[in-house]
Amino acid sequence: MSDMGYSGAIIRLTTDAPDDNMSMALNLFFAKDGVSWARNCGPEPEFGDIKLTDLIRLAAKTMKLDDLELPEDDSDLDCHMADMVGDGPEEPEGLLAIIHTAGWAFAELRARLKDYEDSGAPRIDDKELATLEKAVQEFGAPAQVDMAIEEMSELTKALLKHRRYCEGCQAKGEDRLEEAIAEEMADVFIMLYQLIYIFGNAEQIQKVVWGKIERLQKRFQAKDKREETP
Ligand SMILES: [Mg+2]
To answer: What is the pTM of this model?
Structure first.
């Protein structure tokens, strides 16, 4: 891990418009349309984005590895590189394969992190998670479940208050009411993490979330189809 890290800062790590060395490094490889790309690594003078497979071909050319017969098809090249990674960094093709593996694996991990950051779900690190788990151990699960119920009702109240005062009105303390909603949502997130710890069902929650969103997608697709049909 680089000591230039952003640890502790309230900042997202993934971006499509990196503007300094650190964000450029963190977003160097990315996934687009199911393919891995390297940002600004294309040939001069444009230095544009380049597909990882083309980057490998370009690197082979730069290293004057003219004898290498790299597959022309991208999927074949991906498979070939996966086979070659065991050759290690002392073999030129092994070195290319290491760059290739680092590139697609980084793009894959970045895509996963980007989904998470795009969702707006608050990030907690392992120490913060340990603190929340300690709260359950110290105060007991029943007390924390009660607290979760309390926080959820506080969020309900904040939402109702906002609806009562702010519907169609711009002036009347809207900022203050929105701040209250943010605070109560934060409380509910903190309690949700503890409920996951208490009930130990993260995987089940994930499956249910996917299932429900899929149902919603299907509803929208059916609606769009109905509207298309004259
Ligand atoms: Mg609260």
So the answer is: 0.79
